[in-house]
Each structure stands twice: as C-alpha cells, then as structure tokens.
Amino acid sequence: MDCLFCKIAAGEIPSNKIYEDEQVLAFYDIDPQAPVHFLVIPKAHIPSCDALEESEDPVVSHVFTVIARLAKQLGLTGGYRIVNNCGADGGQTVQHLHFHVLGGREMGWPPFAS
Question: Where would I find the H helices in the chain?
Fold first, then answer.
C-alpha cells in the first residue's frame, strides 16, 4: 500500500512520535498550525470517516481517549481543537483517517475564511 500514514505507522518513514500503542499512533505535525499540533491515527488503514464501519467504533473511541490523555500531558488545560478533514472538499490530503489536535493558543471561529 502506498499510504503515507501507513508507512509512518509501520516505522518505514520517521515521525516525531508522542504516543504509540497497538491500535494508534500520535505524532507531531510537520507543518504545525498552532504551538501544539499533533495527529492521532489508527494504525489500521481506514481511508476516511466516510469509510468507517461499526466494527471500527472501538478504535475511534480509543483515538479520542488518547487525545484527551495527551492534551492533558501537554498542558492544554485551556482547551484545544480536534480537526478531521473528510474528502477533497473537506481538505483531506492523506487518505488515512487522522485527527489533528491543535492547542496552545486561542482558536478563532470560523477557522478559515473562504
């Protein structure tokens, strides 16, 4: 498979890991958009939220448990934003389910003007 995040999860491409277990991997974004910006991905290849099946509910739940734990460990006590881009119009550039976690500054709304 020619998936960037699968290769990162397999250790074929280096990343700045902050957490790893059997189901998920968390690593810092290479182009941070906030003082703290990391991604959490399932190790199993899931193309996007649109491709999720009920059998994958446990790993998605685990992703959010890991996010909460890491946010606390990284001192994001004032809050943080979780972003998932789904599909081309949603801005998804890597076809592997992933969640951006951004914090360390106040987040505006809407996030981007068009």
Answer: 4-9, 57-73
DSSP 37: E
pLDDT tens-place values along the chain, 114 residues long: 699 999 999 999 999 999 999 999 999 999 999 999 999 999 999 999 999 999 999 999 999 999 999 999 999 999 999 999 999 999 999 999 999 999 999 998 887 654
Q: Which of 37, 45, 62, 98 is catalytic?
A: 98
Closest to 41 (Cα-Cα) out of 55, 62, 11, 68: 62
Distance CA 100, CA 98 (A): 7
> pTM here?
0.93
Active site residue 98: yes
